[in-house]
Amino acid sequence: MAIDDSHSSSFFAPWPDRLRHSAIILLAAGLALCALVLLADLSLPRAVAVFICISAAALVPWRLHHVAASRDDVRAVSPVESAAVSAVVAGMPDPAVLLDRAGRVIHLNAAAAQLAPALRKNELAQFALRSPEIITALREAIATTEPRRASYLDQVPVDRWMELIITPVPVPTLFGGTEKCMLLTFHDQTPLRRVEEMRADFVANASHELRTPLAALSGFIDTLQGPAKEDAKARERFLSIMHTQATRMARLIDDLLSLSRVELSAHVRPDACVDIVPIIRQVADGLEPLARERQVAIEIDLPASATIAGDREELLRLFENLIENALKYGASGERVVVSLKEAASGDGTPELRVMVRDFGPGIAPEHLPRLTERFYRVDVGDSRAQGGTGLGLSLVKHILNRHRGRLLIESVPKNGATFTACFPQAKLSSSA
Questions:
Q1: 365-372 — which CB contacts under 8 Å span 24+ positions?
Q2: pTM across the whole model
């Protein structure tokens, strides 16, 4: 026969504890019975029998009281607020929020708390989800108890396209009925949107920028197959130009693909801790042949280390673009200075600033706001002669956006230019 362990353990609980809790009842009963015996209103055997009955009632743990208390405890918790429902919502991979019929938050998981930090349990979700599309869909779902979908753009801290699905969920009530709660699930559509934009941009940009070198290659091939077929000097000159054009096309495609990859993951902030000092030194060493060719000295002024949260490969590309541009377009200044310092942003947030300064001709003020646009060039002829694709600074800007940083450009004509990459400092754990 099965034995209820909880009831048996409570029955055999220490007697001193029961006596302490029932002491006043037993003392009062004993005094009353003694008084009745002394006044000869009650015989001693009957008084003892009555005292035993009272003691049993006070000391024995009756099951009736325990069951009643248990039922009260169960009824105090609504089924939808149980730990099981909370665990189901917490285990959903996408951001999920469960609301009651009035729109108050019952449960939410960690992903939803990260997506909308203003969400609070037992508070109205409309106050935390301020997008008009969300509020409209939620009100319609509550009024009609029918599923609703809504797409919206979340612009903080970066653009993210989200889809909201509102599903009415029947849940049991305390009194055996059912009530419709609202389950909100958020699906991130950003990767799909990025892929579509990447495809469209790649086709548009590639078709536009590749048209010129492809036309040049086609013309030179026709010339080599025709009039210059037996001209060795012309063949060597044309082959050299064709090699330059092919290299430019390869670099253009490489820059377009790199830019597309960065844009595709722009909403995902890198979380790996990276020391940028050795990355900058590696880039400077790799560009030393170009510096010797342009007769430019690279001066490095860096601390022993500087750690940020970042992606190593993207940071290599960023610093390579900045330093290479300084070597190419500021060569007349004969030196390029790369330095790093700690500073504070406009809102007081500490950040690391990597400055790349050249002492060349500088940039006119009217060009500064547009330098990070795709294919924007201050001097188209000079840029193409230098092997530029017009995508370097655009790539730098997008990499900094993904790292939650910013790009500062300062220039004075005939006095060089300074490009500053600002990164938020990494938050080190207390155990580090």
A1: 365/411, 368/409, 368/411, 371/409, 372/396, 372/397, 372/407
A2: 0.51
